[in-house]
Write a structure and sequence with these properties.
The chain contains six helices and 14 strands. The protein is an alpha/beta fold. Bound molecules: zinc ion.
Length: 224
């Protein structure tokens, strides 16, 4: 069966390197094209020097910063990354103000739009709920979820811009992705640093809620 919905006709997937950084169990990814060696860094916040070393040792040129959302623990390294690489920052227009700076180049994360990483690519999915402009990045075989979906959990909705109903809708959207899709979350809060949609559908109690009311009660009672 060929993929449908959000996963239909995806460009060929970049390769992924997942790196844990900082003291808040943040997970970053370097996505790269193995042919052109062009790369995108997801949510540079901590240890930018180490992220760039990881890119350098693979012979990669960082062209993009892909932002899932603009909480500090996901963007505090954007300035340093852009200064050192000239990377274009891909971010939801609803959250762009947080990363805008003189001389910095921004591009809008538009729902359903493919973003080239060399000859490979990812698709922006606007998935609000944790924040107003939360964005996931879907590729053939994996999805980068930021603080929307964690292994065994989901993001909080009680920060500014959070919305439990939108969170529910966004999670429903991820649940419709092909089950073998690998999940790369924004924090290492689960039993493993990555998972799959199939595994989360079976085990993640936020995804196992039958109704929005059940989800809301669970989300509002649990603070992480
Ligand atoms: Zn967050």
């Amino acid at each position: 069966m060929s993929a449908s919905g959000d996963a239909a006709n995806l460009p060929p997937a970049p390769e992924v390197v997942q790196i844990e950084v900082g003291l808040l169990q943040n997970l970053c990814e370097i996505l790269f094209c193995p042919e052109t060696r062009e790369a995108a860094v997801v949510d540079p916040a901590f240890e930018v020097d180490r992220l760039l070393q990881e890119a350098n040792k693979r012979g990669l040129t960082v062209k993009l910063a892909l932002i899932t959302h603009t909480h500090h623990d996901h963007i505090d390294g954007v300035g340093e990354l852009c200064d050192k690489t000239g990377a274009v920052v891909v971010v939801s227009p609803r959250e762009a103000a947080a990363v805008r700076a003189p001389g910095r180049r921004l591009a809008d994360a538009v729902d359903g739009q493919d973003i080239a990483v060399g000859r490979r690519g990812v698709r922006a999915l606007v998935t609000p709920g944790h924040t107003v402009g939360g964005t996931s990045y879907l590729a053939e075989g994996f999805v980068v979820t930021g603080d929307l979906l964690f292994v065994g959990g989901c993001g909080r909705t009680d920060f500014t811009g959070g919305d439990t109903a939108q969170m529910w809708e966004s999670l429903q959207r991820l649940m419709r992705l092909p089950e073998e899709t690998r999940v790369y979350p924004g924090h290492d809060y689960g039993e493993t640093p990555t998972s799959t949609i199939a595994h989360e559908l079976r085990t993640n109690r936020f995804l196992r809620c039958a109704t929005f009311e059940e989800f809301r009660a669970l989300r509002e009672q649990k603070r992480r």
